[in-house]
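Box 4.2: Ligand-aware structure prediction
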Amino acid sequence: MLPTHFGVTPDGALRILDQTLLPGEERYLTLTTVDEVAEAISVLRVRGAPLIGVSAAYGVTLALREGPADPARLLAACDQLEATRPTAVNLPWAMGRMRAAVHAAAQQGRDVAQAVRAEAEAIWAEDRGMCEAIGAAGAVLLPPGATVMTICNAGALATGGMGTALAPVYVAHARHQGVSVVACETRPLLQGSRLTAWELTRGGVPVTVITDGMAASRLRRGGVTCVIVGADRIALNGDTANKIGTYAVALAAHAHGVPFYVAAPRSTFDPATPDGPAIPIEERRAEEVRKIGGTQVDAPAAAVWNPAFDVTPHQLITGYITDAGLLRAGELSRLGM
Ligand code: MRU
C-alpha cells in the first residue's frame, strides 16, 4: 500500500508526513500558513522534485487563510515558496502556473481564490496522472525477476502519486513479476535507506540497501537489470540533475554495460536551461555531512562540501522514462523541449 503522505484537510490545510523523522517515527503535520510550507520544503519535511511543486502550489492556497485574496499577496507567496530550494525545476514550474492563474483570474474579473485553489488541485491531479504514465512506460523495461538499482527516493514519498523511478517497479510488482530493488543509501541525508527502503517494504517489494560506495561493485557483480533514478531538472540537451551520487552510479553503470534510465514527468524538463553546467546546484549546511542521526562523524576542524545534487551528462543516460513514453536524449522535443 502506498503511503498517504500528502493530503488536504476538509478546511483546506495541508497534511503532510514529516519525512525527516522516517523511518523511526510516522508523524503527520498540519500546515496552515505559507511560512510553515516554506519551512517544510527547506528542511525536507516534504521533498522530491514533484512533491515540492505540488506542496508549494497548495502553500499558495494557504495565503487565502491568512488574509484576503489579494493578487499581490498571492504572488508574494509564490516568490517566497519558489526561493526555498533552487535545483528542482518543478518548483518554479508550479509557481509559474500559480502566478498565471492569479493574473488570469484578476484580469478576467473571476474569483481569484477559486482560481488559485483549482490550479493547485490541477497540479496535484496532473502529477498523479504523470506518475501512472511513467509507471506504465517503464514497466515494459522490466522482465520477470528484474532487479532495479536506484538512488535517493523517487517513489511515492517524492511525488503526489506513485512515484517516478519507483513507479515502474510498483507496476511490475502489481503484476506479480518478482521485481526487486537495490537502494543506495544516499548520503548525507539517507533518502535511500530511510525513505525508499521504508516505502518499498511497506509496499511488499523486496529491497536490499547498500551504501553508496558499494554501487559499482554491485553493478560489476551482475544481475542488475537496469538503474532507474529520478530527476530534479533535465536540461534541453538531456543532462540531468539528481541527488548527489547519481553521477557516480551512472558512470559505474556505463562501465559495466547496465542500462541507466532517468524517470521524470514533463514538469521536470526545463527547456530554458541549455545544459548541465547551467543547472543551479543547491549547497546545503555542513552539519548534514558532519552528523549522522545527530552523531558527529567527522573531525570538527575538517572543512565540508555539501552539494545536494550532481549532474549526469546525457551521454550516460540510456533513456528517459516520461509520461509521454520512453524517449532518447534527441527526442526530448516531444515534451515541448
Ligand atoms: O533533496 P531531495 O530529497 O528533495 O532530493 C530528491 C531527489 O533527488 C529525487 O531523486 C528527485 O527529486 C526526483 S523525485 C521523484
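In the box above, the bound molecule is MRU. The CA atoms of residues 67 and 73 lie 8 Å apart.
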